[in-house]
Structures are given as structure tokens and as C-alpha cells.
Amino acid sequence: MTLHRIDYRDGDALGAVLLVAIAIGLPFLVADRFYLNLLFLILLYGGLASAWNLLGGYAGQFSLGHTAFFGIGAYSSTLLYTMAGVSPWLGALGGMAISMALAFLISYPVFRLRGVFFAMATIAVGETVRIVLLWYRRIADIPYGISIDYKPGLARMIFSEPRSYALMAGIFLLVVVAVCYAVSRSRAGYYLQALRDNEDAAQAVGIDLRRYKLIAFLISAAFTSLGGTLMAQYVLYIEPSTVFNTTISIDLALMSILGGIGTLWGPLLGAAVTMPLQEFLRDWLGSAGAGAHLVVYGALLVVIVMLLPQGVVGAWKDWRAKRRRYGGQHARG
């Protein structure tokens, strides 16, 4: 993939410093285990949502099947580690390779679809992978749930200190955002945005639709798979109903939309809103009945999306634009 020249803009350096401070600095400022756990989830899902945003936000391909890649990453590294003693770092690479191969195989049929039909096709892919796993585990004698022995060590990607997991998630976020930045500010990124805004017009001027969609799809699938490995090593337990849950795909899309779809900061801001909301509501309403927190969570998100239809970043940009216009009119007056 050729990115050509990257279009640097004013404020990029300040944004990079701020992001590094959040991803690397915050874990050292938080001491409470509950908040370290929350920080890990925010940073991890911020990276996962950024990976989804590259395909769904910049390229306009609204995927709801990313749970397939998340589950592949979790299962690949876990099975290799528990059955063959392969380090999860290497298992993560295997999962990324499998996820990219799957993305490549399904790209031709799904890219022929648009809008809601594309979303439905990706949901079907995620469910198909889960069903195939359930069928295959009976043949290969794989247990439904797989536990990972708690043996702390860097080579095993298992840590006794929760801060280490938060730092690992922070580094994951930085890498994903850096790649998204490089792609979005290059010629490939502008082509992707052209495809999102008007696919027919982009094709008419000679943009290779499948090539640039595929670039975004492969990168997005690889990072989502890596995130699945990180989550598996954090909870030390996986099963099909959790890592192949369609809710994961929906959450990634929702975080990007809430924060600002097609922006660099949007997915992280979306994760910073939705993850604490989920955790606090689960903690406060857990005794009120199973699933009560989900009802309140959904209602609050509907209100937020109605108030901020363009997301947090979009609302901020609109406010700044109105302020500049008002300032200009006031100066002329």
C-alpha cells in the first residue's frame, strides 16, 4: 500500500502529545483497581472503535460483523497458547493473518452490496464464523469455554499489576490511531472519503473502489483481531457467546457515531462516554434486575445521539465555525 505524502495540519503535534499523555500517562495517575479496569476498557475499545472507523467512518462501509475478527483473534491466540504453548504475542499475529484472510475472501461478495444490505451481510459473516466454531469444536474436542492459567509474565501477556494492562491497551490505541492518521491524511484516505460521500462519482473519476475498500477492510480486521487477543489475555477466559457477540460490533459502531464518525478523536471520545456509562449503570442497577442497566443505557444513548447527531467532534466543529462567523460579523459591525 502506498500512502504517498501525508497531509500534516496545524494542531496535529498538539493532538499527538495529548493522545500520548492520555494513553501512557493516565495509567500512572490512576491507582484504584476499578478505575484501572475502566481505563483499560476505554483505551482498548477506543482502539477497536478507531479500527472500525477506518472502514465504517472513512470508507463508509457500515460493518456490523467485526465481532468475527474479534473472536478470531481471541480464539487463535488462546488455542495456540493453551494447546501448543505458543506465546500470545505470536498467536496474535496468527489471528491477525487469519482475520485478514477472511476479510479478503468475503470482500468480493460484500463489497457488491451497499447500505443496509452491506451491514446485514457482515452480520451474517459474524454469525457464520460463530456457528462454524461451535460445529468444529465438537470434532476437535474443544471445550465450550477455555480458561487461561494465571501465570504472570511478559512472554505470556499476563500481568499481576492492572496498570500493565492499561498501558498495553494505551499502546494499542496509539498504534491504531497512528495508522488511521497516516491513512486518512494520505491520498488513500481522500479516496476513501470520496467513496463514502459519493461512490458512483468516485468510480466515474477512476478511483479503484475495491482496492481502497480492501485496504481499509484488511487494516480494520487486523487491528480488531489484535484487540480480541488483548481482551482474552485480560479476562483469561473465552467462550463463543462472549467473543463472537454481535453486541461488540454494535458497540464499536455506536462509539464512532457518538464521538464523531470519520474523525480521529471521535472513536476515543465515544468509548470514553459509553464504557463508563455501561460500567457505572451495571454497578448501580445490577441488583434491580438482570439487564436493567441495558435499558437505561440504551435510553441515555438515544438522548445523546438526538442532541448530538453529528457526534461530539462534529458538534465541537460546528460550534467553532459558528463562533468564527459570529466573530467576523461582530468585527465588521
Give a description of the structure.
By secondary structure, the chain is an all-alpha fold. It is built from 14 helices and 2 strands. α3 (67-84) packs across α9 (209-235). The longest helix is centred in the middle third of the chain and has 27 residues, at 209-235. The N and C termini lie far apart (51 Å). The model has no long low-confidence stretch (mean pLDDT 87).
The assembly state of the depicted protein chains is single chain
Distance N to C terminus: 51 Å
Tell me the helix content: over 70%
Secondary-structure-based class equals mainly alpha
Unreliable stretches (pLDDT < 50, length at least 5) are none
Mean pLDDT value:
87
Number of helices: 14
Primary descriptors:
globular, 2 strands, 333 residues, mainly alpha, 1% strand
Question: What's this, in brief?
Answer:
About 75% of the residues lie in helices and about 0% in strands.
Question: Helices, strands, pairings?
Answer:
Layout: H1 12-29, H2 33-58, H3 67-84, H4 88-110, H5 115-140, E1 146-147, H6 162-184, H7 187-197, H8 199-204, H9 209-235, E2 237-238, H10 240-243, H11 246-259, H12 266-285, H13 292-307, H14 311-332
Antiparallel strand pairs: 1-2
Helix pairs in contact: 1-6, 2-6, 2-9, 2-11, 2-12, 3-4, 3-5, 3-9, 4-9, 6-9, 7-9, 11-12, 11-14, 12-13
